[in-house]
DNA sequence: CCTCCACCGGAACGTGAGGAGT
DNA sequence: ACTCCTCACGTTCCGGTGGAGG
C-alpha cells in the first residue's frame, strides 16, 4: 500500500516537474540496520555489497550519493518497529533524522509505517524529537469495506454470474476477522476461484472459500516446514513422536531428551537446551508448534509444547528429507521406559 | 510464609563464512 | 596476503520465577 502511494507520488512529481525519488524498505524483511541502509544506498544509485562494509562507511556513501543528485528523497520504512525493537542500535534512525543538516541541494523525508501503535515508546528521545512526527492512524478494514474492494476487483477477474454475493461476503468476513487485510481477502477469492475452476463448476460457492482458507494455511505450513534447518526439523519430529503418546503435550525436558536420541540416531551433534529453547519459541511463532509457559509448582516451571501443524502435513513434508524422514517412525527409548513404568 | 524445582530468557561472547580495501 | 567489516548461529553464564508442598 505504502509502496503504491510512493510510486504514485513519484509520478505526480514527475508531471509537475519537481523530481522526487522514493525509496521503499521493509525493515522486518531487511532484518538489520545494515541491510536497510544498504537498500537505501541502492535506491539512490550507490552500489554496495550485502556484507563487508562498516555501517559508518555505508552512511557516508549514502550521504554522498544523495548530495550528488539534486532531487529530494522520500524514504518509506515499512514495519519500522522491527528496527526499533532491538534497542540500543537506533543509530540508523538517528542519522537519518539528522542527515538533512549535512545536505545542501537535496533533502530527505522520512515516513515510518508500523502496525504497532506503541513502538514509539522504544524510540530514542533524540530521534523522537527530531522527527517532527505527524501520526496517521489507519484502522483495519471492516468487512463492508473489504466487500467493496473485493467486488470491485471481482468485476475485472470473474465472468458475470460466476460469483455469488454470499461468496464475496464470506471472503470479506473471514479476512476482516483476521486483521482486516485486503491482500488476504483477495488471495482467498483467487484460490477459491481456482478450486471451483478445477472442479469444473460454473460458480464459486461459499464452500470453495472455506476450502481455500484451509488450503492457504496448509500451503503456508508446508512451505515453512520444508525450509526449516535440520535441528528444527528434528525438534518437530521429537514433538511429533511424543504427541502420539502424551496427548496433553510434552514439556521442554521430555522434548530435549527425545531430541538428543534423534540426534545420535542421525549422527548429529545436539544443540544445548538453551538453544533448543529459542528454536522452540521460533517454531511457536511460525505456527508449527504451540508452546506455553506453565508452572507445576513444586515440580518446576517449564514450557508445555504441542503440535500446531497437522500430523499429516508434518509426515508428508518431513519424509521428503532423507535424513529426518527415516526418523519419523522412530520410537524414542524414554517413551518405551515410560510405558513400562506406568 | 518460605523453599525449591525445572526450567525461562536476557546478555555477553565465540566462531566461521562472505566480502572490501589495500 | 592481510586486516577489517557484518551476520548467522551457537554456547556459557546466570538472575528470575509461579506455585505445590512443607
What does this molecule look like?
The protein has 342 residues and is mainly α. The protein has 17 helices and 6 strands. The chain folds into 3 domains: 2-130, 3-Layer(aba) Sandwich (Rossmann fold), CATH 3.40.50.300; 143-224, Helicase, Ruva Protein, domain 3; 228-341, Arc Repressor Mutant, subunit A (Orthogonal Bundle). Helix content is 57%, strand content 10%. The strands form 2 sheets. Strands 1-2-3 form a 3-stranded parallel β-sheet, with helices on both faces. The N and C termini lie far apart (58 Å). It binds a DNA duplex (22 and 22 nucleotides) through helix 14, strand 5 and strand 6.
Concise structural overview:
By secondary structure, the protein is mainly α. It has helices at 2-16, 27-30, 33-43, 55-68, 81-85, 91-98, 125-130, 143-157, 165-178, 182-199, 206-226, 230-245, 252-266, 273-285, 311-318, 322-325, 333-341, and strands at 21-26, 73-78, 108-112, 250-251, 289-295, 301-307.
Amino acid at each position: 500500500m505504502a509502496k503504491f502511494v510512493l510510486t504514485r507520488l513519484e509520478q505526480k512529481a514527475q508531471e509537475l516537474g519537481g523530481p522526487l525519488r522514493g525509496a521503499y524498505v521493509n525493515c522486518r524483511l531487511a532484518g538489520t540496520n545494515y541491510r536497510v541502509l544498504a537498500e537505501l544506498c541502492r535506491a539512490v544509485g550507490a552500489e554496495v555489497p550485502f556484507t563487508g562494509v562498516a555501517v559508518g562507511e555505508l552512511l557516508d556513501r549514502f550521504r554522498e550519493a544523495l548530495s550528488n543528485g539534486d532531487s529530494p528523497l522520500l524514504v518509506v520504512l515499512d514495519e519500522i518497529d522491527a528496527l526499533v525493537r532491538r534497542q540500543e542500535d537506533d543509530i540508523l534512525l538517528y542519522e537519518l533524522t539528522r542527515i538533512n543538516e549535512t545536505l545542501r541541494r537535496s533533502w530527505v523525508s522520512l515516513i515510518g509505517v508500523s502496525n504497532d501503535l506503541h513502538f514509539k515508546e522504544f524510540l530514542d528521545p533524540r530521534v523522537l524529537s527530531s522527527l517532527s512526527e505527524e501520526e496517521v492512524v489507519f484502522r483495519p478494514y471492516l468487512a463492508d469495506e473489504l466487500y467493496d474492494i473485493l467486488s470491485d476487483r471481482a468485476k475485472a477477474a470473474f465472468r458475470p454470474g460466476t460469483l455469488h454475493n454470499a461468496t464475496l461476503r464470506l471472503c470479506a468476513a473471514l479476512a476482516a476477522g483476521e486483521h482486516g487485510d485486503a491482500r488476504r481477502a483477495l488471495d482467498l477469492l483467487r484460490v477459491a476461484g481456482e478450486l471451483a475452476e478445477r472442479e469444473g463448476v460454473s460458480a464459486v460457492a461459499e464452500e470453495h472459500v472455506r476450502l481455500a482458507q484451509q488450503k492457504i494455511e496448509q500451503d503456508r505450513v508446508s512451505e515453512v516446514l520444508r525450509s526449516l534447518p535440520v535441528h528444527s526439523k528434528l525438534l518437530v519430529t521429537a514433538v511429533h513422536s511424543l504427541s502420539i503418546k502424551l496427548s496433553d503435550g510434552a514439556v521442554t525436558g521430555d522434548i530435549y531428551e527425545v531430541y538428543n536420541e534423534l540426534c545420535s540416531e542421525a549422527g548429529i551433534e545436539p544443540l544445548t537446551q538453551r538453544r533448543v529453547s529459542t528454536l522452540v519459541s521460533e517454531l511457536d511463532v511460525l505456527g508449527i508448534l504451540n508452546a506455553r509457559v506453565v508452572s507445576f509448582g513444586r515440580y518446576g516451571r517449564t514450557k508445555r509444547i504441542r503440535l500446531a501443524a497437522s500430523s499429516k502435513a508434518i509426515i508428508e513434508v518431513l519424509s521428503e528429507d532423507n535424513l529426518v524422514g527415516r526418523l519419523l517412525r522412530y520410537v524414542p527409548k524414554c517413551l518405551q521406559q515410560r510405558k513400562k513404568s506406568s
